[in-house]
Amino acid sequence: MEVDNCGPVVKMGSGYELRFEDGADFEESYKERAVNDLRETPERRAEALEELRRLIREEKKLYLPTDETTELYLLAFLRVCKFYPDSAFKRVKFLYKLRQKNPKYCNDLLPSLEKNVFSQNLLTVLPSRDQHGRRILITECGQKWKVKNCSLTEIFRGIELVIEAAILEPRTQVSGTVLLVDFDGLSINHVWQFTPNFAKLVLDWIQYSMPARLKEVHIVNQPYIFNMVFAMFKPFMQEKLRNRMLFHGYDHSSLLAHLDAKCLPTKYGGLMDIETDQGIDLWNLLCYYEDNYKVSNEFGYKKKK
What we know:
Elements: E1 2-4, E2 7-12, E3 16-18, H1 28-38, H2 42-58, E4 62-63, H3 71-80, H4 85-101, H5 103-106, H6 115-119, E5 123-125, E6 135-140, H7 152-166, H8 170-175, E7 177-182, H9 188-191, H10 196-209, E8 214-220, H11 226-233, H12 239-242, E9 245-249, H13 252-256, H14 279-287, H15 290-296, E10 300-301
Parallel strand pairs: 6-7, 7-8, 8-9
Antiparallel strand pairs: 1-2, 2-3, 4-10, 5-6
């Protein structure tokens, strides 16, 4: 990771750059998508923000500033709920209640504390968006994952950190995210790390809490034993998410039917000559925003005295 005139950047492969965008403006194509997909207009955005702020202020036990410093964060909740303030507020409350109930997974979410999972090279944010403008996160939960060196809790916390950075990108708020989970080399030892309680937590976070539009989940290189993992998640999965899950096995052509080859590494049949081995660079990029994470870690329901 290095810092240039445009801010922190991770150089990947030959000519690829990963940056987390912090500008409020985006291209006309994103503006059209915001109108068509999210019902977003300047008037509706202003009205919805005002109403969401009012609802948050009335939730007396919840600490979440409603001034200009959190406007982009609140827009993430509104955009995922298509600018219905009541739905966005419900998501806000669910997120902070989930965090309150699950401190092991959600407290002290700071990049500086989670170096280990990134050093294992299990998480990769691709430098190019897909053909629909969506961010792509790769999680490798098979042969790369050494359970003695890295816990499932650490993997989830690492994903939370990445998503928290991505949701502050206006383009990502509008277009959404794609998750590619690589289970190549999944073993029974890996399967034993999963529990129904963990599956419910993850799906509660994705379906009811996370202020991000998860548009697709691509499962690749999964062996037959993966069915044991999926069986734990399936009872808690709503139809909307189930319809967005795509299982490709080892068939790259199946994956490429959904994601353009230009935005995928060669090991998944794509054209990007990059390796998924720059976890520490990604960690350094997230650490650049450590102060922002410290601020957001203070948000939530007040502890009972």
